Amino acid sequence: MPVLVVTGTGTEVGKTVVTAAVAAAARAAGRTVAVLKPAQTGVAPGEPGDVAEVRRLAGDTVTGEELARFPEPLAPGTAAARAGLSPVRPPEIAEAAARLAESHDLVLVEGAGGLLVRLDEEGATLADAARLLDAPVLVVAQAGLGTLNTTALTAEALRARGLRCRGVVIGSWPAAPDLAMRCNLADLPEAAGAPLLGAAPEGAGTLPPESFRRAAPAWLAPELSGTWDAEGFAAAHR
């Protein structure tokens, strides 16, 4: 099944921008793409959410679907309970992703926050949906100090559940990286037990959509339909 689950090592790590970049690179390679957001939090009815942002950046030829929306910027399970709304559960996510996979070459399932953020009162998580789908998980991580620990913890949680980490993408790579960031280029694959598959430049989400689409393949490795070279990138930042 052509499904890739996208999670982050935490909030505000660049997950939506990376999802859009993967979608844009896949579209540039001639693949049909859908993005599924199981739970959108912190956005009022009628306001654009993460799906709209992915489609704005990657293009409206990307199919977008959102399963649930909760107004407060909280974990989905908490936000649903406080709003008096039904939570979204892993079987719903798996069913929607499988349905989209029937008519698309690639389905990107973008989670909320990190891998183990609770979706409902029973403690279900995005990892449970990935397990139902038997789908690999792409981890979006920060560039700087502290990222090795959160990346290693995310990868360990994946392994403990029998899930495969497809790789790691740095969600925001600055123009002037510090020493820790440069060292992390070599250390992140060790922490994750999976390859480093790209780095989106800082501010990528502010680019005009046409520029974003043209540039996106250069931020991602061939495994994600791009041209980015991990060894060359690391060598350039020694």
TrEMBL record:
Where is the chain membrane-spanning?
none
Required cofactor names: Mg(2+)
Function of the protein: Catalyzes a mechanistically unusual reaction, the ATP-dependent insertion of CO2 between the N7 and N8 nitrogen atoms of 7,8-diaminopelargonic acid (DAPA, also called 7,8-diammoniononanoate) to form a ureido ring.
HAMAP family in the record: BioD
Task: Tell me the route in metabolism or biology where this protein functions.
Answer: Cofactor biosynthesis; biotin biosynthesis; biotin from 7,8-diaminononanoate: step 1/2
Q: Which family does it belong to?
A: Belongs to the dethiobiotin synthetase family.
- Locate the residues binding substrate: T41
State where the protein is found.
Cytoplasm
- One Pfam family for this entry, by name? AAA_26
Subunit architecture: Homodimer.
Q: Which CDD domains match?
A: DTBS
Protein EC: 6.3.3.3
GO MF terms held by the record: dethiobiotin synthase activity
Record: residues binding Mg(2+): T16, D50, E110
Query: What keywords would UniProt list here?
Result: ATP-binding, Biotin biosynthesis, Cytoplasm, Ligase, Magnesium, Metal-binding, Nucleotide-binding
Lineage of the organism:
Bacteria, Bacillati, Actinomycetota, Actinomycetes, Kitasatosporales
Quote the InterPro entries the UniProt record gives: DTB_synth_BioD, P-loop_NTPase
Q: Where does ATP bind?
A: 12-17, 50, 110-113, 171-172, 201-203
Does the record carry Glycosyltransferase as a key word? no
Per the record, what are the reactions this protein catalyses? (7R,8S)-7,8-diammoniononanoate + CO2 + ATP = (4R,5S)-dethiobiotin + ADP + phosphate + 3 H(+)
Q: What is this protein called?
A: ATP-dependent dethiobiotin synthetase BioD
Q: What class of enzyme is it?
A: ligase
The active site annotation covers: K37
Cited PANTHER family: DETHIOBIOTIN SYNTHETASE
Q: Gene name on record? A: bioD
